[in-house]
Amino acid sequence: MTTASTHLTVTVWERPGAPPRVWTLTADPPGGTHPDPEAAIRAIEEAQRPFDPVPRGALCAQVYGGPQRAVIEGHWRGRPVSARYDKRNACEIARWKALSAVLDASDA
């Protein structure tokens, strides 16, 4: 059985002007330069619509979670992906938390 390919590039900025952290992520088997590819792939698989933006018109509490920004681009199971993440309100914070194993990984 052939599985559609997964190859993602994860780019995270801790704050404006900071140099980004950039990792690659593959699946089947989990791999790439990400510090914990198994946990990252599992987080994506378990999240509901992990690459979809917050729906237009969603009511989101105005809670600021920090200056972090992230982009995930590439292909997930053969489907093109281009998703952006930040922590500017409660809805965006929830998206970030769902993928914390992907976005909050440490190179250490």
What's the architecture in CATH terms?
A: 2-Layer Sandwich
CATH class: Alpha Beta
General form: globular
Task: State mean pLDDT (0 to 100 scale).
Answer: 94
Low-confidence region ranges: none
Strand order of the largest sheet: 2-1-3-4
Rg over C-alpha atoms, rounded to the nearest angstrom: 14 Å
Strand tally is 4
Biggest sheet descriptor: 4 strands, antiparallel
Number of helices: 3
By helix and strand content, what is the structural category?
Answer: alpha+beta
Protein name: Subtilisin inhibitor-like
Keywords: Disulfide bond, Protease inhibitor, Secreted, Serine protease inhibitor
Organism: Thermasporomyces composti
Subcellular location: Secreted
3D structure, described in words:
With 108 residues, the chain is α+β, with helices and mostly antiparallel strands. It has a single domain (7-103), classed as 2-Layer Sandwich (Subtilisin Inhibitor), CATH 3.30.350. It has 3 helices and 4 strands; from the N terminus they run E-E-H-E-E-H-H. The chain has helices at 37-46, 90-98, 100-103, and strands at 7-13, 21-26, 69-76, 79-86. A 4-stranded antiparallel beta sheet has the order 2-1-3-4, with helices on one face. Strand 1 and strand 2 (21-26) form a beta hairpin. The longest helix has 10 residues, at 37-46.
